Amino acid sequence: MSPFIVILSTGSELTAGRSLDTNSGWIANQLFELGWKVKKFITLPDDPNLIFSELQSLQTLAKEKPVLAIMTGGLGPTEDDYTLETVLKLTGKTSYSVEKAKLRLTKIYESRGKEYKDILPNVFRQTFVPEGCKTLDNSVGIAVGFVESIGENSYLVCMPGVPSEMTEMFKRRLVPELKKLYPRENLLQKTKWLWNIGESLFQNDFIEPNRDEFFKEAEWGVTANRGYIKCIFQSTNQNLLDQIINRLETQYPKIISDDVFSNVHDRLVALQLTISVVESCTGGLLGKKMTEQPGSSSYFMGGFLTYSNEMKSNLLGIPIETINTYGAVSEEVAKAMVDGLCQKTGTHYGISITGIAGPDGGSDGKPVGTVCIGIKEPNGQITVHRYVFPGNREAIRENASNTAIFLIYQSLKSKVI
């Protein structure tokens, strides 16, 4: 039986509006991809009475049905971190210090000098958990997470509120535990990405016409990202899922993909191909994305950040007349950029990005969001793609860099490994 899932975020900075709760949405999305749906979000200030009241209500609900409560925040070393003491009050348990975390914390603080060593007793509270719980190691920070029973087939999960710590703990420590606690043996899932299409258009064009045929037995969901939507289909019927994916690939042959970030990495490694980048409006973001996976040094050789026209001309050998004639944001300049890049680096693949990220700089012919992406393939062929991406400056830059990787994916998928 699937649990009644509630996500609780604690922190007065959240309820005061000083910080945004990004944890809840991220956790809910991850759970959906695992086959579970969240029923409720709760955001609470650093008030032990309010936190206790909510947990007590969930403990009462657990007498009627399986409950999974996932709470983030309140595990730090300061006096406004109330999670542990509230859980101890709820369960009537005592706590103990996790030796592995205590040793790690001691080593870190002693290496920082006497001032830090003197405050060790105060920060040790991050290493305490309820007796008899399942601990969740923190490989990014110090605070130990834990899973505590609150009823039959019901559990309270407590994790740090710092997103980098929480996401790592969730993926590496919590997910294996959840799969043991709530197995979904018969649930099958397929995921595909569609590029430069909105959620509403996808639902109108694909889901609605196929609702009677496919989606009486299959669940579907969409998560929107910069440049693409992730389409998730779940069912106990493998044949039905295959039919859905076949229909999807037939309807969207030019914009469909698997996970481009891992796929591009795997294929470049397997094919022993190299790649370099030259960026303007994305300011190095594409290079960052290309090097996020371990092992990327085997194919990513480097590149150039040519923000100004002078740098485009001086570093890449583009005649200034070409830039003046067509404009820095043009198919002609994007082509010249990637050609000059590959002449300098000698890589099999090259990618160039030039665009108008805004908020200023747009015109009727080239509005804000106009981006040209050039791709040079191992056979020397250069193609340039022009887009007008929606959103603010951050969104446009993310869209452009993600789409550039998708274009490499399209080229690589035809190559035989």
From TrEMBL:
Upper taxonomic lineage: Bacteria, Pseudomonadati, Spirochaetota, Spirochaetia, Leptospirales
Family indicated by similarity: Belongs to the CinA family.
Protein name, as recorded: CinA-like protein
InterPro entries cross-referenced by the UniProt entry: CinA, CinA-like_C, CinA_C, Competence-induced_CinA, MoaB/Mog-like_dom_sf, MoaB/Mog_dom
Superkingdom in the source lineage: Bacteria
Pfam families in the record: CinA (PF02464), MoCF_biosynth (PF00994)
Residues annotated as domain MoaB/Mog: 6-181
CDD domains: cinA (cd00885)
Origin species: Leptospira limi
